[in-house]
Structure formats: structure tokens, C-alpha cells
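Exercise (ungraded).
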Amino acid sequence: MFVTLMYSESKTNEPKRMNQNEFLIFIEPIKDKMYRLSLRLLVSKEAAKDAVQEVFVKLWNKKDKLKDYDNPHAFAITVTKNHCLDQLKLKNNNNLSIVHNNYEDESKSVQKHLEAKNELELVAEILKGLSQQEQTLIQLKDVEQLEYDEIIAITGMKPTAIRVALSRARKKIRKEILKKHHYGTV
Amino acid sequence: MELSNINILLNKYFEAETTLAEEKELEAYFLSGNVAPELEEYIPLFSFLEKERTIKASSGIEFEMPFKKERHTRYTSKYKWLSVAASVAVICSVFWFTQQNKNYANKTEPVSSEIAMQNTQDLLLMMTEAVATSKEQLNYLNQLNKTKDKLIKKQ
């Protein structure tokens, strides 16, 4: 009785501020989604972990404003997405030509080893070939199974633009799968 | 589910016109292990998507919260207060215990002051008697001295 009284009192005094515990509770349901999206875009586990770590810091710094957002969880995913895209941009700016050369070599060796890999890894390889936007959309829609309004909130894209890009991404995947499939059977 | 139905859903899926429920239906079909041979090539796609969904950051990765240090000091101060409370409790319990013992000792001899007075007076009287009798005994020592003096005087 006394405890609940104290609790409600402190609640009414500071309705907007988020404490550490509330922050942990806020993060809990989305931290895996944040990690998976980072992993999709950045590929390496280390980079994904660092990205999520840095996004946590960013969110904590904004903790007092978090509750003002219509959908704070979507906002957290948006921050994650933008952070990962920034990381990729930095990487590309630093060594664009080298990356390009490496990419050629890598794709050839990937082509060679594709047969040896199992079918799931093949799908992963296909996804890597999609644009960042397409990867993000596949990740949010097909992996996380989010509703369209959530994806709108996260990406800031218009519904029709989302559908067009998503359809394009799915068809690319289909094309690659069928190509590999026929190649395997013939 | 009927194959024609699945084909329709699949086409809708690639046009991005499926609802979330329909996509879940598709996934359930392709993961059921009972897929029509002409659609088998799509199994890896849906099992891949399902597998990716189960990746957990929580297992194996320890994220450092930005407020870890703050939290640490908070906990130590909590422990500090806990130790203070514990020592106060120990002191109180010792005090209470001794107090309780005192009370217990007092309660075993519920003496009225009159009897106490009588007893001490008796005791003192006994003591004076004892002292008196012992003093009488000492008179024999004087006798010893007298005989000694006699002997010395004779020599």
C-alpha cells in the first residue's frame, strides 16, 4: 500500500522523464530487431553490434524526448537504419575504388563457391546483391513482419513507394532463385 | 491449402499486394514440409526469412548500457545503506537482548524491600558476631606473649 502510494507520487511528479529501468524496458522488445537490421545492412556481426551499441547511446541521450514521438519504437529503428546507412557511406567514401576492385574478385569467387553453399546461404547472397533500400524493406517486411504503417513510420516513405520497391526487391530475389534453381537442375 | 490458392498468393506476394496475414499463410505453407514439387524452389526463401527472424542479439552479445557506471555507483550506495541498516540492527538487537536479560534476572528475585532490609541486617549482625568471636580467640595470643615475657625476664 505504502509502496504503491510512493510510486504513484513519483510518477505524477515526473511524467516525462525516462529512468534507466524504463529505458531498459523500452529497448527490450526492439533490441533484437535493431541488431538484425544492422546485421542485414552491415553484414559483419562485429559492425552490427557496434552499431546497436552506438544507437543505444544516441537513444539514451534523447531519452527525455523519446516519449514525445508517436511511435518511439519505430523511431529507434529509424535511428538504427540511418546509423547503418551512415556507416556504409563512410566506408564507401574512404576506399571506393579499392572496394570496387575487391568486389569484382569477391563476386567471382562467390560464384564459384555458390554450389557448395547450402540453399539458405544462397538466399543470403542474393539479398546482399539488393540495394540498401531494398534490403531494409525486405528485412522490415519479410523478416520482421511489420505492418505497412510501421514501415512508413520507420522509413518515412510513401505507401505506394514502399510497395513498388518491395515488389521490385522480391522479384529480383525470385529471378535469382529461379536462375540458380534451373542452373542446378540442368 | 489448395495449390491454385497458393499460386495466387505467391503472385500477389511478388507484386507486394499481400497482407501480413497472407504472407504468414504463405510462409506456413512453405515451412509445412508438404510443398508441391513445382514450388519447391521457394522453400529456401521462406525458411531463410524465418531463420533470420530468430536471430537474437540477446544471446552471446552483451551490450553496454550508456549508464552502466552511473548504475554501478547507485548500487554501491544502496549497499552502503544496507550495511548501515544491518549494523544498526545488530546494535539494537544486542541492546534489546541485554535489556531482556536484565529484566529476566530481576524477575527471578521479586524481593520486597522489607525482607531485603531484614536479610541484610541479619547478615550484618552475623558478621559482627563472627568478628567478635574471632576477636576473643585472639586473646590467646596475648597469653602466648605473657609466657614469652616471663621466660625472657627469667633469663
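Further reading is listed at the end of the chapter. For now, observe: The mean pLDDT of chain B is 84. Chain B has five helices and no strands.
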